[in-house]
Specification:
single chain, alpha/beta, Rossmann fold, 7-stranded mixed beta sheet
Length: 215
């Protein structure tokens, strides 16, 4: 995974928390129930957690509140700076979904919110294969991200965004690597996971994947 979005996220870091709390009408539907979505991911997490795409640390804070041991991975220096200001005594590392420092601990849960779409489908498969080897035998992946039931559903959402003059949102949906549930289900199952998908808002789905053979 390249870091082509780093400059964007460095710039966005200062207003990110305002965006996710509904202050940008164009992205309001993307972030409906934002805190509830993060809470859902946190509550499904156990043990030692590896979090990708920490951003400003909102999910990290919830994981910490549950007493979990969290290793956070974030490629944007701007985001890391704000997360460190908000959260003390956290392990926050420079890295991304595919290129990150070796974690000297057994990982129970891998989590991410609003970030997995930065990988192409091929990169998503590489990541899931890597995580299947990294997780404990009963380990779990819990991701929440914009996903579409079909490619046609994605194209319909782009047309709808343009009709509403949400041009930045439409551009994002076309530029980044938003994928479909069938693609993700195939990848997870290929690498030994049982996965379920639950729609949490008009854009975001929860992906809950556990390694087969676990409880």
């Amino acid at each position: 995974m390249g870091r082509e979005f780093n400059e964007l996220f460095d710039e966005w870091s200062h207003s990110y928390d305002q965006t996710v709390t509904g202050h940008d009408p164009e992205y309001e539907e993307v972030f409906i129930d934002y805190d509830k979505i993060l809470k859902t991911v946190a509550e499904k997490s156990t043990g030692t957690v590896l979090e990708f795409g920490v951003g400003t640390g909102n999910l990290t804070a919830m994981l910490n509140e549950r007493g979990l041991n969290v290793f956070g991975i974030e490629p944007s220096e701007g985001m890391r700076t704000i997360a460190k200001q908000k959260l003390k005594n956290i392990t926050l590392l420079d890295g991304d979904f595919l290129d990150f420092p070796k974690i000297d601990a057994e990982i129970d849960t891998i989590v991410s919110t609003y970030a997995f779409h930065h990988l192409t489908d091929a990169e998503k498969e590489t990541a899931i294969q890597k995580y299947s080897e990294l997780l404990k035998k009963d380990g779990r992946i819990v991701f929440a991200d914009t996903v579409f039931s079909t490619e046609e559903a994605k194209q319909e959402k782009i047309r709808e965004s343009l009709k509403r003059n949400f041009h930045r949102l439409a551009e994002d949906l076309q530029r980044e690597y938003y994928t479909t549930i069938p693609v993700l289900q195939h990848i997870f199952e290929k690498y030994g996971f049982e996965v379920s998908f639950i729609k949490l808002n008009p854009f975001v789905w929860l992906m809950d994947a556990q390694k087969k053979g676990g409880e």
